[in-house]
Amino acid sequence: MSATQIVRPAGAGHETLAVLAGCALILAIAGTVVTLRAAPEQSHAVAANQLDARRDLNAAEQGVYADLRIALDEIDAERAGQARLPAVAALADMGLPPFAQDASSAQRGAHVWTLVADGAAQAYLGLSGDNAVAASVLLRVAAPEQGHDHGTEAHAHDSEPDIWMHRSAQAAPAALDVAQLTRAGWRQVVARFDAGVTRQQR
């Protein structure tokens, strides 16, 4: 009498479950590592008398602000340690934005620039020709003898230019000190870069 034995084919069900379980474990470990290693997002708030250069300025104002940051190095070079700042006309003759009157300056508010002083303090004042396009601008420049020589290497890398804006100013401020400017409605422009900025630039 012969016996018949039935041999069932090997199924892939158990192997599939094992592979899926392994993948899930790997994903869980990777997610945990990424979460633990992620740097906390740091956001630096600005004071009430300040404007964030990235968030609070429109395109025209950002253009003027960027021009002034670059122009400050040229102003320092022209100044050459002298107490008196270069005249606006001299900067315009150099074709230095935003002091030069060209198509770009007209599109950014057509500012009228003057050199103003309050005792030893000096600043370049740009009164906007159209406050709806861009605010009036004030660039305060510290005297070299006060220990803030903008021509030094430290200025080029560490110090921020002292730029203020006022969206309705029609005349020069009565004084150039921080307290008086703040009371008159001027706000200092500051650059604040956080983790969000880095991600947006990538």
What's the topology here?
Blueprint: H1 13-37, E1 50-52, H2 59-79, H3 88-93, H4 103-107, E2 112-118, E3 121-127, E4 136-141, H5 153-157, E5 162-166, H6 178-183, E6 187-190, H7 195-201
Parallel strand pairs: 1-6
Antiparallel strand pairs: 2-3, 3-4, 4-5, 5-6
Query: Order of SSEs, N→C?
Result: HEHHHEEEHEHEH
> CA-to-CA gap between the ends?
80 Å
Ranges with pLDDT <50 over ≥5 residues?
A: 146-158, 195-202
Average pLDDT score = 82
Percent range of helical residues: 25-40%
Q: What proportion strand?
A: 15-25%
Largest sheet: 6 strands, mixed
Tally of DSSP β-strands: 6
- Tertiary shape: rod-shaped
Biggest sheet, strands in spatial order?
Answer: 1-6-5-4-3-2
Rg, Å, rounded: 30 Å
What's the total helix number? 7
| Category from helices, strands and their pairing | alpha+beta
How many structural domains in the coordinates?
A: 1
